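assembly run, all chains below
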Amino acid sequence: MKVKKEIIDPSTEEKIKNAARKVFTQKGYAGTKTRDIAEEAGINLALLNYYFRSKEKLFDIIMLESFQEFMRSMISVFNDEKTSLEKKIESMVSNYIDLLIKQPDIPLFILSELRNNPNEIVKKMSLDNNLMKSFFMKQIQQAIKEEKISDISPVHFFMNMMSLTVFPFVASPMLKNLGDLQQKDFDKLMQERKKLIPKWIKATMKVK
Amino acid sequence: MKVKKEIIDPSTEEKIKNAARKVFTQKGYAGTKTRDIAEEAGINLALLNYYFRSKEKLFDIIMLESFQEFMRSMISVFNDEKTSLEKKIESMVSNYIDLLIKQPDIPLFILSELRNNPNEIVKKMSLDNNLMKSFFMKQIQQAIKEEKISDISPVHFFMNMMSLTVFPFVASPMLKNLGDLQQKDFDKLMQERKKLIPKWIKATMKVK
DNA sequence: GTCTATATACGGATAGAC
DNA sequence: GTCTATCCGTATATAGAC
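ok done. output:
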């Protein structure tokens, strides 16, 4: 009964959260009016406060969920001890691009909010998942030792992977303008990058 | 006399602009209160409106200047017909990293403001400097023809260069957290990247 | 749970004295 | 040019009826 209701017509709480996610990610915390969220959700402003008490509390929930979603692909892959470094890179890039094509404005949302207030939630999650001590980083260090790849800080590898994968989405409004691209062209380029980025990463790893 | 005054004590107009640049880039348009700018400039709120009429007009000036500064390194290098592709990449990356170490939050400022309102200023400047038809792009296409580099859309090359150079600064709050880096460590990594990125770019250019 | 009406605070902008 | 005091619209949040 409850399930049926949620499928046919999401609960009010869910409707508000969906609306909030949409408006917050597009306009940021400061640019968002609770009235916009209420309107987007098709409910009254008072109801928003009934469910979530305040704009800030609602925002914290959305931010936490967005950040978790952004980190999920990374964490699961990083700590997996079974797959090779090469396969890890491939699946990470592919997972991310799939996620980002569906939700292109999550990274810019997180990064621009993070700029002003070093968010406590994010700090805590970063500490809980110390990426620099993950199995992935150990694999890189091992490969350096065995002289399979060049001797550069593993942080650079990580930066490169994230940069090549995430930046085009963060900068998409500008890139579309500068490159005179339609959304369709842009998405096609991103699909191409799923295969290209792992190849490029491997090439950079051998640079001396 | 005038010059001396500007060196010793910048004009009020300059003081307000400097304060505005600082606050706007840190908090974005919506997050900025004109009172904050006034305080930062050490002047009264009324004076801000006396000089610039409104928050929006002041913002437009700051945005235009920031965007121009961000594009300058690129445009001058792109249209230069004398230097080789290789040298161009080197000087562009180096120029950008120098600029970004000095003013790390310009890109995130531009990109996050661009997200909501496809800024008219930016649109116009993008049209005026059609990068895809610049000499730099012709050089890439020529190199592809001569089979010196692999046959991929020049847009990918451009994205890669910008990604590797700019993204670390856009994502610095997160990268510092995840990588457990102090500002000093971060800047050192960026300095290293001045030499590394051109090498990496060259490596990716040969990938089939 | 959901609405209308309202309290309260805040932020942009101006009036007017100096 | 620069200040203090103030106006006024708007945004968050709550009271209270249904």
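The mean pLDDT of chain A is 93.

Residues 12, 43-44, 46-47, 50-51 of chain A lie near DNA strand C (CB under 10 Å from a C1').

not gonna interpret more than that til we talk
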